[in-house]
Amino acid sequence: MEIDWEKLIPKPRSAFLLVECAECGHRQVVFDNVKIEVKCQVCGSTIALPRGGKAKILGRVLEKLS
């Protein structure tokens, strides 16, 4: 009998995102389930807001990092 590891070990539903700030264009890595407001490290504008689950990303998502 063959074991189906895909069913036994679930894949995570969250990921890290490479987000570009809408104000200054700085690129920053952000978790997609943020619990606190994330601000740009350069200009201080808000990049992501917590929403009780998946975050509301205010910048442009460039890439989903695995």
- Rounded to an integer, what's the Rg over CA atoms? 15 Å
CATH topology: N-terminal domain of TfIIb
- CATH architecture, please? Single Sheet
**CATH top level?**
Mainly Beta
Q: Number of helix segments?
A: 1
Structure class: mainly beta
End-to-end distance, in Å? 31 Å
Number of domains: 1
Q: Give the ordered list of helices and strands.
A: HEEEEEE
Order of neighbouring strands in the sheet with most strands: 2-1-6
- Strand content of the residues, in percent? 35-45%
- Share of helix, binned: under 10%
Counted beta strands: 6
- What value does the average pLDDT take? 92
Describe the biggest sheet?
Answer: 3 strands, antiparallel
Topology of this structure?
Layout: H1 5-8, E1 16-20, E2 27-31, E3 38-39, E4 46-49, E5 56-57, E6 60-65
Antiparallel strand pairs: 1-2, 1-6, 3-4, 4-5
Summarize it:
The chain has 66 residues and is mostly beta strands. 6% of the residues lie in helices and 36% in strands. It has a single domain (14-65), classed as Ribosomal protein S27 (N-terminal domain of TfIIb), CATH 2.20.25.100.
Describe this structure in words.
This protein has 66 residues and is mainly beta. 6% of the residues lie in helices and 36% in strands. The strands form two sheets. Strands 2-1-6 form a three-stranded antiparallel β-sheet, with no helix packed on it. Strands 3-4-5 form a three-stranded antiparallel β-sheet, with no helix packed on it. The protein is elongated.
